[in-house]
Amino acid sequence: MIVNLKSSTVVFGVALFTAIFFATELDARGRGGGRGGGGFSRTGVASGGGFSARSGQRASQQVQRQSVRTGSQGNRQEMAGDRQANRQGNREEAWGSLDDRQEWADDSREDRQDAIKDRQEDRQEFVDDELDDHDDHWDDHHDRWDDNDGEFLAGAIVGGAIVGTAAAASSSTTYITTLPCTATAVVVNGVSYYNCSSAWYQRSYAGSQVAYIAVEAPSGY
Amino acid sequence: MTFTRKVIPLIIAGMNSIPAYSDKSEQEAESAANPATQSGIETEQKEAPGAIDAKSQLDGMARKLAGARQFSVSIHMNYDVVQASGQKIQFSEVRKVQISRPNYLRVDSQQSDGDTGGLIFDGKTLALFNTTENVYSQTTQPGDVDAVVRYAVGKLGIRVPLARMLTSTLPQELQKLSTTVDYVERNILGAMPTDHIAAQTKNVDYQVWIRKDMLPTRMILTYKNEPGQPQFEAVFSSWNLTSSINDSTFTFTPAKGAERIPTLLPASRPNGMNKTQGDA
User: Strand B231-240's sheet: what is its strand order?
Assistant: First the structure.
């Protein structure tokens, strides 16, 4: 596991972290205390309870996509900004048109399926195209966090709880759902740190679950 | 569509021997109050309500929920998780959902392993909290319940089972997603008779049991194209669409000693990053 940590300035009032994470999700969540003691994964497609599901979207596919994405992250950030207004418009139009829809989906089903399939293929290469698919599958996105196959996922920090702490918002780090050791929390400036050999972790939400992200050692350690 | 009930002889025999299951007076009152379901019942066709009624029933449920100014409900959820070995394991969770439209949402959940937490949205800030870990996170996301549900599920990857049922666009979404909608039967078991509706989307088959007041009592989602075809089941109880919910319910106050932690955002949705107003 390669962890490339880079400290960033502690920023107050800045809305957004766009740092990219490489994240390794390990099987079974929680630490100690009998939780997940059987080693069974408790998340999957059905745990999301969505009315839609992207069939066949498995971890290996994600890895492929992620690697493509992270390779051109800088470009995509710019493009995403440029396209923002455009996409927003498209999406609202799509949703607005639903109000006029009197018939059930039977008629347009085949067309839509073809379109969706095409878009899914495109998604392998173009992240933005995913949004075209958004309407049908928005309640399925949870399972990006749910592949317990030890695969890599990418993530960024939002809702800057890390702000104002001594922790590092790094350009690259990891998250795990189970600590590799039995660690006792070390509280520094109100933030709990967990130490396993030379690695330090701090808690963070990954989807609905509390996970651990790799951080620099707190001051004094 | 006619659905096969392979165990008909056993079930009928069992039913006849257990008269307690049939609350005759309630059934009659039910039928009298709802003439639509009466037509054709005495003929050889048990399928009386038909496909059109199935859609209108489903739509009626969707509109009831979507049009509610506020509601609260407890949902007991069971869901399968197909393990890497192929073994199917079922987990459970109880969620209490409270919505006061347009801007307030609260979900309290307790997993079968004891993990307790939830989310609260007050029109401006989405708070996630986990009382087991005693942590919380807050993300600024101005908007209404519809928007925050889509943001939480679609952008942050937060589990909100049956998320679509929390949105005011539920009727349109079910119409858009559903490729077939059929009437299975009138289910006379339980405290209230229900209409059993079976529908399909591209990758999910779902069934819903709808009682006379158009509220669902139960729902099953089958992920038919997933390995092992895992199911998600929800049993609804304590529906309340009339009592207004105190605003303080939707005010997030961190528990004593709770630690604020960040939220990871999947990088696969750069759009989410741009839209996000992370607060400091």
Answer: B180-187, B194-200, B204-211, B216-223, B231-240, B70-82, B88-100, B104-111, B116-121, B125-130, B135-140, B259-260
